Amino acid sequence: MQKTSSLARLAQASVLLMGAGYLGSAQAGILEDVQARDTLRCGISSDKAGFSFLTNDGQWTGMDVDLCRAVAAAVLDDADKVEYVVTTAKNRLTALASGGIDVLSRSTTWTASRDANLGVDFTTPWFYDGQGFMTHADYGVEKLEDLDGALFCLSPGTTSERNLEDHFGRRGLSYRTIVIEKSTELYNAFQQGRCDAITNDVSGLAARRTLFANPDDYIMLPDVISKEPLGAYVPQGNAEWRDIVTWTAFALMNAEELGVTSENIDELRDTSKNPKIARLLGTDGRIGERFGLSNDWAYQAIKQVGNYAEIFNRNVGPDTPLKFERGLNRLWSDGGLLYPAPIR
Amino acid sequence: MTTPPSHAEPISQTVASPLPNAWQWARRHLFPSPGHTVLSLITLAFLLWFVPTALDWLIFSATFIGESQADCTGGGACWLPISQRIEMFVYGFYPDTQEWRVNVAFALAAGLFPLLYAKRLDRRWILAYLAALPFVMWWLLKGGAGLPEVSSTKFAGILVTVFLGVVGMVFALPLGILLALGRRSSKPIIKMLCVLYIELIRSVPVITLLFMASLMVQLFLPPGVFIDILLRVLAVLILFTAAYMAETIRGGLQGIPKGQYEAAKALGFSYWKTMGMIILPQVLRNTIPPLLTQFIGLFKETTLVMIVGVLDIVGIAMSTTAAPEWLGLEHEVYLFLAMFFFVICFALSRYARHLEKQLERSRS
C-alpha cells in the first residue's frame, strides 16, 4: 500500500515537472490574462462546509470562496467576476500547474515539497489549522498513544495521511486505515463505526462533530500532531501575480487591524485622518498601481467582501452552524498568528 | 422460439376449469408444496410490512414543501434539499435567462427515442438527426454563432449527465463499428492498430483514463491551448465505450454466414457496399440488445467524471449533502439519485426488450 502511494506520488511529481517546463512561457502574465478575460478562474473544493459549498440558489460560498472574490474585486473591481472550477484533492495542484486555473483556494496546506516541486507557489496562510483526532467516547481513550492498532478513516492524497504515518511510525505504534475519497462519506463511515478514529484538521473535525446525530458520543483528543497553514496557491514563476494574491489577503487582515469594515469603509475613506487607513484604501500613495492594479484595489476587496473578521464570522464563526473559535486565527495583537505585513 | 408442451400440466385439467380463478393461480404458483408455502408466506409478510413502511416514509409522512430542515417535521423523508435545489440539479449554474437552451437540448435528445421507434421514417433522416444531434446540442449549450457563450464551468447536474450520456452514445457507436470492421480487416496494419487499441483500452479501468484526461493531457499540449475538461472526459467515455462496442459488433459480424460475403462479391459489390447494404444492417439488428445494454452502462459510467472535478448530478448531490443546512439528509439525496438513474436506465432497458421482441417477430 505504502509503496504504491509513494510510486504514485513520484509519477505525479514527474508529470508535473514535465508540465512545469511550459509554465515559463504559458503563464507569462497571469494578471494580463485575467484582465483580458475579465474573469478570475479560481479552483475550489465542492464540499467543504464553511470553506466552499453551494447555497440553495447555486452560489458558491465559504472562506475559500471569499478569498477568490476578494482577489477578483481587487483585480477586476467586481467580486462576482469569478469562474469557479471544482477541483479534487488529487487534481488540484495539476490543474494549477497546467494553467487551468489562476488561483487555487482550496484549504491546501503550505508545505515545502509542494512549494518546491510541483510547479506551484504558496501565497500566504489564510487559515491556521492543525491535525487532530476524534474517536468514539465510549472507548475511554484519553491520548493518542491509546489508539495503538486502531483503524483510521482517511481521505486519500492529503497531508493527514503522511502525518499519521510519521507520527505513529516514529513511536513504533501500529494502525490500519480505510481510505474514502469524499468527506461526507468519510464522516458517515466513522459515525457508523466502520473505523475507530478519524483524523483531519481540527477545524474540520470540530465542524463535523457539531453536525453529527449525537455529538456527545465522540471526543476530540488533545493531541495536535501537525501544523496546517492553509491558503491559496498560484502557478510557479509569476512573482507579480503571487504578490497580488498575497497582498489581497494581507489587505483584508490589515483592514481588521485598522477597524475598517465593509460597512464603515466609505465613511472612513472620507473622514479618517489615519495615514495607515489612507494608504490601505488608496487615498494616499500609489501602492495599487505598483501592483499593476488600480489604487483602490484594497478598497474594492474590503467593500465587496469584508475584512478578515467579517469573512470569518460570516462563514465559520459563532453564528454559523460550524461555531469555530478564532483560536490561532486571531490577529497577532490579540494573541493569534495573523500578522499581516504592513501596507506602506 | 417455441416451448415444448409441458408435461406437468395435463391438458384435461385446464379444460375442466375454464375459469382459472385467483385461488387456483395462487395454489399453483405460491403454495404448491409445504416448503413453497412457508417461503411465500414469509415473503408476503415482509412485503405487507415493507411496502407500507417505505411508502409512508417516502411519500405520506414526507415533507415536500418548506424552506429549511426545520420544516421537516413529518417524521418521513425530507425532500427539501431536492425541491429547494431542483433548478441546480437540472440546470447546474446555467444562467437563468438561457435555460430554454438546455430545455431545447433535452427535448432534442429525448426526441431520439420516438424516432428510433418510428418504422415508416426514412432511415437516412434518422441517421442525419443522429449525426447532427451532438453538434447541435454542443452549440445550444455552449453558445457561439448567434447565441451568447456560456462557460462550461456553469455546466452541472443533470445537464452534464444527459449531455455526456447522449453525445457519448451517438459517437461511440460509429467508432465501434469502424473498430470492429478494422479488426476483421485483411490489411495487417489496420488490423494490428485496431486490435492494439481495443485490447489496450479494454485492459485499463475507465477511471485511470479519466485521470489521464484530467491531469496529463493538458501538460502535453502547447502553451495557451486549453481543451475544455468536459470535452476531455467526453472523449474518454466515447473511446472507452467504443472499444467495448467493437467487440460486441465483431461478435455480430462473425455470426453472418460466409456465403453472404461470397454472394456479394459475386454480384460485384465493393467492400463498403457489401458492408453498408448487406452485412451491417443484419449485424446491427442482431446486436441491438447488447449495444443498448452498453449504452445503459455508459450512462451510469458518466458519474465517474465527478472524481475529476466535473459536477454531474452526483457532484451536485455531494455538494448538497455538504451544505451545513442540509447535513444529515444523505439518504434522501442518494435515493433521489437512484430514482433518477433507475427511471432512465429502466426506460432504456424496456426499449431494448421491445426491440428484441420485434426482432423475434420479424425472424419467425
TrEMBL record, chain A:
Record SUPFAM superfamilies: Periplasmic binding protein-like II
Signal peptide limits: 1-28
Pfam families to which the protein is assigned, alphabetical: SBP_bac_3
UniProt keyword terms in alphabetical order: Signal, Transport
Transmembrane segments: none
Single GO biological process annotation from the record: amino acid transport
Superkingdom of the source species: Bacteria
Domain Solute-binding protein family 3/N-terminal: 39-268
Family statement: Belongs to the bacterial solute-binding protein 3 family.
PANTHER family: AMINO ACID ABC TRANSPORTER PERMEASE, AMINO-ACID ABC TRANSPORTER-BINDING PROTEIN YHDW-RELATED
UniProt name for this protein: General L-amino acid transport system substrate-binding protein
Organism encoding this protein: Modicisalibacter muralis
Automatic annotation (TrEMBL), chain B:
Transmembrane segments: 37-60, 100-118, 125-141, 156-181, 193-217, 229-246, 304-327, 333-352
Tagged with keyword Cell membrane: yes
Keywords, ordered alphabetically: Amino-acid transport, Cell membrane, Membrane, Transmembrane, Transmembrane helix, Transport
Location(s), subcellular: Cell inner membrane; Cell membrane
GO CC, one annotated term: ATP-binding cassette (ABC) transporter complex
An example Gene Ontology biological process: amino acid transport
Membrane topology: Multi-pass membrane protein
Family: Belongs to the binding-protein-dependent transport system permease family. HisMQ subfamily.
Protein name: General L-amino acid transport system permease protein
Biological classification of the source: Bacteria, Pseudomonadati, Pseudomonadota, Gammaproteobacteria, Oceanospirillales
